[in-house]
């Protein structure tokens, strides 16, 4: 079984499964500093909002180990705070990155009696972020499964599985749980241009789990809905605004519009950590723009359009909350608004029921 992101036993490297090479090569690469991890996140060696948050947390743990003999307590914490800044900036749309770095900064600003004890606290917090991800996604999968009929054709975009998290995944976790519980499900896998996370990664995960699926080009989504071959749609999230507007992989909005037109339920499957109550609506969400090369050379080498064709390549889009039937989370199926007060109440409830 593959693991998208790990901390090496000696805490000297973050080990990432290189998602750019899947499904044909399972290669693990070691990254030895926070700046190397930030670059790996930018290059999408690891991707998916929860997985990049975990990778960034481990990036700080590795940096803490690397810098342990490099200066006094003050310079040590200052350098680690700088590392949090680079990691946070490595991809702008997924709020999980800032959420993880906020947790690491909290550890950095607490009082510790030595560099050694601060370093252990950093490793513990990074490891906790990773293990919480597994538990949270397991709960999401259980909650979501209650919505899946015993026989269903589910449309899914991008990759939201174990590769995008530490294990289970969000939307694909729900699909995995439904399949494990004996439901007769089939997944329409949107290929997800331009980086093909659906074609390369989601098919790989579904195949490993023996879940029936069919790969489609993104533009086939409407036709399938019109033919009444889709019962519901599940997608992940990179940032959910307070009013429920949701940033997710480019193409999600198109699927949501088509689903609304055809009266098909469209759910966002997300941990609470992807909700950003500081952002009031989707208008305030920064959408990452990526290199034109991703569109011009989808498989890396040959051009599919004349050289120097102008390209616009937004990595995400925003689905307005009115297109979303509900948010499947670790605390249940929710509806906005997601104010801090409300989100904190759910988090507290979660703590007390643990
Ligand atoms: C559980 S993953 C949720 C989202 O991060 C996912 O749907 C997505 O859009 C990933 O985009 P990516 O650009 O591959 O990082």
TrEMBL record:
UniProt entry tagged with the keyword Ion transport: no
GO biological processes: L-methionine salvage from methylthioadenosine
A single GO cellular-component term on record: cytoplasm
Active-site residue list: 238
Pathway assignment: Amino-acid biosynthesis; L-methionine biosynthesis via salvage pathway; L-methionine from S-methyl-5-thio-alpha-D-ribose 1-phosphate: step 1/6
Family matches, as Pfam families: IF-2B
Membrane spanning stretches: none
Annotated keywords: Amino-acid biosynthesis, Cytoplasm, Isomerase, Methionine biosynthesis, Nucleus
Localization: Cytoplasm; Nucleus
Signal peptide boundaries: none
Keyword Nucleus tagged: yes
Superkingdom field: Eukaryota
EC number(s) stated in the UniProt entry for this protein: 5.3.1.23
GO terms, molecular function: S-methyl-5-thioribose-1-phosphate isomerase activity
Catalytic activity: 5-(methylsulfanyl)-alpha-D-ribose 1-phosphate = 5-(methylsulfanyl)-D-ribulose 1-phosphate
Site (described: Transition state stabilizer): 158
PANTHER family linked: METHYLTHIORIBOSE-1-PHOSPHATE ISOMERASE
Main function: Catalyzes the interconversion of methylthioribose-1-phosphate (MTR-1-P) into methylthioribulose-1-phosphate (MTRu-1-P).
Family: Belongs to the eIF-2B alpha/beta/delta subunits family. MtnA subfamily.
Identification of the protein by name: Methylthioribose-1-phosphate isomerase
Source species of the chain: Galdieria yellowstonensis
Taxonomic lineage of the native organism: Eukaryota, Rhodophyta, Bangiophyceae, Galdieriales, Galdieriaceae
